[in-house]
Amino acid sequence: MFKFLKGVVAGSGTGLKDLPYNIGDPYPSAWGSWSHFRGTSKDDGSPVSIFALSGNNAQDGHLAAGRNGVKRLRTVRHPNILSFLHSTEVETHDGSTSKVTIYIVTEPVMPLSDKIKELGLKATQRDEYFALGLHQIGKAVSFLNNDCKLVHGNVCLASVVVTPTLDWKLHAFDVLSEFDGSNESASGPMLPFEWLVGTQYKPMEMVKSDWVAIRKSPPWAIDSWGLGCLIYELFSGSKLGKTEELRNTVGIPKSLLPDYQRLLSSMPSRRLNTSKLLENGEYFQNKLVDTIHFMDILNLKDSVEKDTFFRKLPNVAEQLPREIVLKKLLPLLASSLEFGSAAAPALTALLKMGSWLSTEDFSVKVLPTIVKLFASNDRAIRVSLLQHVDQFGESMSSQIVDEQVYPHVATGFADTSAFLRELTLKSMLVLAPKLSQRTLSGSLLKYLSKLQVDEEPAIRTNTTILLGNIATYLNEGTRKRVLINAFTVRALRDTFPPARGAGIVALCATSTTYDDTEIATRILPNIVVLTIDQDSDVRSKAFQAVEQFLQILKQNYEKTNTGETGASGGASAIPETAGLIGWAMSSLTLKGKPLEQAPLASSSSAPSLAVAAASNVATTATEAPSVKASHHTRSNSDFTDPPAPPSPTSTDGWGDAENGISEGHESDKDGWDLEPLDEPKPSPALANIQAAQKRPVSQSSRPAATSSRPKITAAKAAVKTEDDDLWGSIAAPPPATTSRPLNSKKTVQSDGEDPWAAIAAPPPTTRAKPLSSGRGRGAKPAAPRLGAQRINRTSSGM
Asked: Which of 668, 662, 627 is nearest to 647 (CA)?
């Protein structure tokens, strides 16, 4: 029967060889006759603690008490009580003698006395940490006494251990027993193994073995005395030698002294209940205890309390002991973020604490949580991650970024929030270097092609800047196919001045990737047009770019003449952009300097994009016609463009996206594969002549009054669609209510310098005919079409 009970208590395993743990080095101290060893699991190598107790025979009293401790530790569960994992009992024979050893495997801990020496805390930080630990042990003792009606019997410094997260936990349950105060007939010892407790830790009634008085006392009387002994050993820094030393209160904090004296009252009935000790607000309320306590009950807090707490946490963490923050607070914070109980501001505190870790510890303790957070649907979490991506992006491996992070980040490119699209775009400056070529060409460039025609001008501008910064990570074929089209066809023709300026800067920054033919036929013609741009900043950049590219061509020409091998791109003597191109429309610069010529706006709030765009509305409105007119100049048959090398078929997504910025190229199939402008804008007089030459006059015999819209041929409609903006720049307004024949003499007098003025549209009148009922709200007859009216009137005038 005894062997059966012994097997039940011993747990699984029949010998040390069956123990699934490796026993390591011992700690210098342990409670009672136990030995405390470091250990690891044979399965996964995780750390554990192993306690061992040996005896000469199975009837040894120490072994009986040890079995009691194993049973109690296995059945009693509490956050502040040591966690039980495994136990076994091994009997070994050495000749005629036998030896029995009990092994207990628990979570990894170390003795409190050793941890205090290791931390080396002083003054206020030491007192705050002691308050946190006493609060935890007080809760464990209160749980045993008040909830379980159990008596520990030997609460002291040796019976407390510390976890890797610096939590204090109670163990040494060998003496633990039920409180049988209601059993008045009992006369024997209430604690069968009380002889294991040192005399200095026993209250007077236990020293006298007055079990009658003990049974009449409250359940907490013995352990309250033990808690007082623990307080003395903590603040005195030495082990209790005799009971009289408890009267020395020099090191006890004043706020704790009254409770300390009540815990050590000579009358058991007057000793302070441990649950009442925890209510001592003056001692236990400090920054460390309050912070840890808030994190422990985080799920019970509302969103306002969480938000306020986490916004203050970074500053509070700086005032707490660094070791405690990193080992205790940081794991709590990471866990709360990972399981969704923490608010978005907690990420800022997590990253600040993580910056105090070494690179290896950061990768182990912080990065796994961050990677999991990228899959969160909480928009506030996503925004916070993107805002701080420069703090952890370098620590992530290329495989993690490409496979786990980027797929979630990429959803922000198509988000309805412009602010989130902008942050997603800027995060690519950190993440793009870690992406594979397949992801860069097959996914990222497609998203960027759409962002380059985004409705927000700031996003279009920063997309161009990003392309210039990540150009070095693209392979040669992709650079040839994408960069020139992205910078010239789209960026240089954007109606937003900073976007055009960004296109010029990006071209200069990537000048080493273009050969002489591309510079001469595709880049310089587009940049020269911008030397007469309405925006002075764009003009200044254009002149600088022209000089840079001409210098490249000149140096390559000189090398060819001297017999050297022609270089395909920028020469070493050409000044290149130092570092990365800074963001043009936001103050969020991850690694580069802000663009010097571009206006800056705050990126800390979503309205920054709208403000940046609104501030340039006037410039955009006045500049758009001039850019469009220069686009259509290429259709003139009197000027022949030099043939440009054809671009390869694009598979990046720019061909699938509508340009949306320059209406003059709506018919183009691929916005990044279009041929760029090759000619500057002609003078106004020359433009009028060219426009007049393009007007169809073959059907001018038909009266204007009888012309109708359905009779217009398909060829005329096509000309109308393609030259709509061109007509808009030189055409006359709607005809007046009373028309007069043209007076050629007056026309010659007013336009003496223009011999083609006779066939041009008449000057505008002061009165305009109201809109027809078919095209507006008016009810008057419809006016003839503008093109036909001009043709007929010109013919009659001639």
From this structure: 668
| 22 beta partners | 40
Torsion region of 770: left, alpha or beta (phi above 0 gives left; psi -120 to 50 gives alpha): beta
Which tokens hold the place of 248?
A: 């020395």
Q: What's the pLDDT at 94?
A: 74
Q: How far apart are CA 593 and CA 591, in angstroms?
A: 7
CB atoms inside a 10 Å sphere around CB 791: 22
Structure tokens at 326: 């990193």
Among residues 375, 292, 378, which one has the least CA distance to residue 331?
Answer: 292
Q: How far is CA 691 from CA 208, 357, 635, 684, 729, in A?
A: 120, 70, 10, 10, 10
CA distances from residue 781 to 705, 710, 737, 776, 785 in whole angstroms, order as listed = 11, 16, 12, 11, 12
Dihedral pair phi/psi, residue 559, rounded to 5°: -65, -35
What confidence tens digit (pLDDT) does each residue in 661-703 have? 333 333 333 445 433 334 445 556 556 555 554 555 444 334 4
User: CB of 365 within 8 A of CB of 165?
Assistant: no
The confidence score (pLDDT) of residue 492 equals 94
Comparing CA positions, the residue from 456, 396, 453 lying closest to residue 427 is 396
- Smallest CA-to-CA distance from 167 within 46, 288, 298 is with 288
* Strand pairing report for 168-170 and 177-178: unpaired
Which pLDDT does position 122 carry in this prediction?
86
CA distances from 512 to 107, 355, 463, 570 (A): 60, 38, 20, 4
What pLDDT score does 186 carry?
Answer: 67
Amino acid identity for residue 413 in this structure? F
Residue 166 has a pLDDT of 93
The segments of the chain whose pLDDT lies below 70 read 1-15, 184-187, 563-581, 584-798
Strands (E), 42-131: 47-55, 84-94, 97-106, 110-111
Three-class SS of residue 21? strand
Residue 141 neighbours by CB distance under 10 Å: 28
Q: What is the pLDDT of residue 687?
A: 60
Cα(259)–Cα(282) distance, integer angstroms: 11
Indicate the pTM of the whole model. 0.65
pLDDT tens-digit series, residues 65-112: 999 999 999 999 999 999 999 999 988 877 777 888 999 999 999 999
CB neighbourhood size of 6 (10 A): 16
CA angle at 263 for the pair 260 and 265, rounded to the nearest 5°? 110
Torsion of CA 43, 45, 50, 56, to 10 degrees: 60
The rounded distance, in Å, linking the Cα atoms of 353 and 364 is 14
Q: Phi first, then psi: what are they for 98, rounded to 5°?
A: -125, 155
Beta carbons within 10 angstroms of residue 46's beta carbon:
11
pLDDT at 327: 92
Q: What is the biggest distance separating any 2 CA atoms in the chain, rounded to whole angstroms?
A: 140
In the prediction, which pLDDT does 563 show? Answer: 67
Straight-line distance from the first to the last Cα atom of the chain, in angstroms, rounded to the nearest whole number: 130
CB 416 within 8 A of CB 454: no
d(CA 154, CA 312): 40
Position 551 scores a pLDDT of 94
In 3D, which of 674, 671, 693, 672 has the Cα closest to residue 682?
A: 693
Q: How far apart are CA 584 and CA 463, in angstroms?
A: 10
Please choose, from the candidates 320, 371, 375, 313, the residue with its C-alpha nearest in 3D space to the C-alpha of residue 342.
313
Question: For position 685, what pLDDT does the model report?
Answer: 54
